[in-house]
Amino acid sequence: MAFDYKKEYKEFYLPPKNPGIIEIPEMNYVAVRGTGDPNEENGEYKKAIGLLYGISFTIKMSYKGSHSIEGYFSYVVPPLEGLWWQEGSRECIDYGHKDAFQWITMIRLPDFVKKGDFEWAVKEASAKKKMDFSKVEFFTYEEGICVQCMHMGSYDSEMETIQKMKKYTSDQGYEPDYSHRFHHEIYLSDPRRTAVEKLRTVIRNPVRKINDRR
Question: What confidence category does residue 7 fall into, taking pLDDT thresholds of 50, 70 and 90?
Answer without folding.
Answer: very high
